[in-house]
From TrEMBL:
Biological process, per Gene Ontology: phosphorelay signal transduction system; regulation of DNA-templated transcription
Domain (Response regulatory) ranges: 1-119
Keyword Transcription regulation recorded: yes
Annotated positions of the 4-aspartylphosphate modification: D50
Keywords on record: ATP-binding, Nucleotide-binding, Phosphoprotein, Transcription, Transcription regulation
Molecular function as annotated in GO: ATP binding; sequence-specific DNA binding
Boundaries of every Sigma-54 factor interaction domain copy: 143-372
SMART domains, per database record: AAA (SM00382), REC (SM00448)
Annotated InterPro entries: AAA+_ATPase, AAA_lid_NorR, CheY-like_superfamily, Homeodomain-like_sf, HTH_Fis, P-loop_NTPase, Sig_transdc_resp-reg_receiver, Sigma_54_int
Identification of the protein by name: Sigma-54-dependent Fis family transcriptional regulator
Length: 457
């Protein structure tokens, strides 16, 4: 049974008709007193709670009722109903234990989607599973490892993938956040629809709306044709918003509105378009700290993290390092046509001892560099040691300019320019070669006015 708590008879009637049409059992009440009477005899599967009652417009009475509900039935999920102007109140409700919030006027499809997602998650019981069992049930072909921490994550991914729950993936750079996002999509009901990746760290605030929501011809000087934005590309599928912690506050407001209302207007257009997407976000930053500092909106934070998946650093699962190394070598066998290529047993053990601050990405680069520079079929410890220290050794032999003849900024500009030319403007490769993150490179490219391919970003 779903319980609707709202003093407005029109709202109760509208929600009751909608939910009964979808074959939910529904009850409606108009006051806190009636709510608590029902909870004494019945336990609803879910409660839809309006925060404002006719005698109180500040939400105080609704918040007090939420506290009473969570005390009486702590396991029952509560969805708050609020107006756009009182989202701050809904955020307070999330802190008090509500699981989601919708704004008036709501979209029926989005409300039903939210209800089904929450009910599905509530019914699923976590279970301990082996890698073999997970492989039999889900598609995790591109994710390598058997560490218990990773298996717990994959089990969570398997449970949440069939729902439309918003997922926030956190973890250090290079831990495989994009692979987890892809796994969520591939194991979802949207797997045959588009999976659109957006690197928010590579999109400047001036291009944010155009990139995500598209633009119409003439919207700005260079808008010679209409352009479809990433959200519209992902319609009926999933959109992966990587590096969401890099968004500035004005862009956060625009994103929140789209996530909340599921509608947007392309830049330069006054016509709203509706979009149905599953949102998956990722960041290597601490969003809770950013919320406390006021650099990330609290309402957006609660909107994107119904489920949070925290990826461990590679040094926290050292037993997976040999498995990953062998996986990379097997791929490189095919790419470079070296069928006898393999790792020695000693090298496998030695690789486990590396701290690898760059995580899986650093390990992959180390293995590939060693394969390229070694002429042997068996890769041993010495081969990896040589390439692990290649960066510092090469730096020591470079001809550096005399002190005072060039500024640090000029040197940085020259190095980035040379790297862009060498790697043919491939941003990911340039960032790796310079030892910085893609986001850090994007900021420097904008700082120095160096052109780059936004599509590659």
């Amino acid at each position: 049974m779903l319980l609707i708590v709202d003093d407005d008879i029109a709202v109760r009637t509208s929600l009751t008709l909608l939910l009964k049409k979808e074959e939910f059992a529904v009850k409606g009440v108009m006051s806190p007193e009636e709510t608590m009477e029902i909870l004494q005899t019945e336990t609803p599967e879910l409660i839809l709670l309006d925060l404002n009652f006719s005698i109180e417009t500040s939400g105080k009475e609704g918040m007090q009722l939420l506290q009473r509900i969570k005390k009486a039935c702590p396991a029952v999920p509560v969805i708050l109903i609020t107006g756009w102007g009182t989202i701050d109140l809904a955020v307070k409700g999330m802190k008090e234990g509500a699981i989601d919030f919708i704004t008036k006027p709501w979209q029926n499809d989005y409300l039903l989607q939210s209800i089904r997602t929450i009910l599905n998650l509530a019914q699923q019981v976590p279970r301990s599973a082996s890698r073999r069992k997970l492989e039999q049930q889900y598609h995790f072909e591109n994710i390598v490892g058997q560490d218990p921490k990773l298996l717990d994550i994959l089990e969570t991914v398997g449970r949440v993938a069939p729902t439309d729950a918003a997922v926030l993936i956190t973890g250090e750079s290079g831990t495989g956040k994009e692979l987890i996002a892809e796994a969520i999509h591939l194991n979802s009901k949207r797997k045959l629809r588009p999976f659109v990746k957006v690197n928010l760290g590579g999109i400047s605030s001036t291009l944010f709306e155009s990139e995500l929501f598209g633009h119409v011809r003439g919207a700005f000087t260079d808008a010679k044709t209409d352009r479809i934005g990433r959200f519209e590309m992902a319609n009926k599928g999933s959109v992966f918003l990587d590096e969401i912690g890099e968004l500035d506050l004005s862009s956060q407001v625009k994103l929140l509105r789209v996530l909340q209302e599921r509608t947007f207007e392309p830049l330069g257009s006054s016509k709203s378009r509706t979009v149905d997407v599953r949102v998956i976000c990722a960041t290597n930053r601490n969003l809770e700290e950013m919320v406390a500092l006021g650099t990330f909106r609290e309402d957006l934070y609660y909107r994107i993290n119904l489920i949070t998946v925290k990826l461990p650093a590679l040094r926290e699962r050292p037993d997976d390092i040999p498995l990953l190394s062998a996986f990379f070598v097997n791929n490189l066998k095919i790419i470079y046509q070296r069928p006898d290529l393999h790792l020695s047993a000693a090298a496998m053990k030695w690789l486990k001892t590396l701290q690898l601050q760059g995580n899986i990405r650093q390990l992959k680069n180390l293995v590939e560099r060693t394969v390229l520079l070694s002429g042997k079929d068996e890769l041993d410890i010495a081969d990896f040691q040589k390439n692990l220290n290649a960066g510092p050794q090469m730096a020591a032999h470079r001809n550096l300019p005399e002190v005072g003849t060039i500024t640090l900024e000029e040197m940085e500009f020259q190095m980035i320019t040379k790297a862009m030319q060498f790697h043919q403007n491939k941003v990911s490769k340039v960032a790796r070669s310079l030892g910085i993150t893609r986001f850090a490179l994007y900021r420097r490219l904008e700082k120095y006015g160096i052109a780059y391919d936004s599509e590659e970003a």
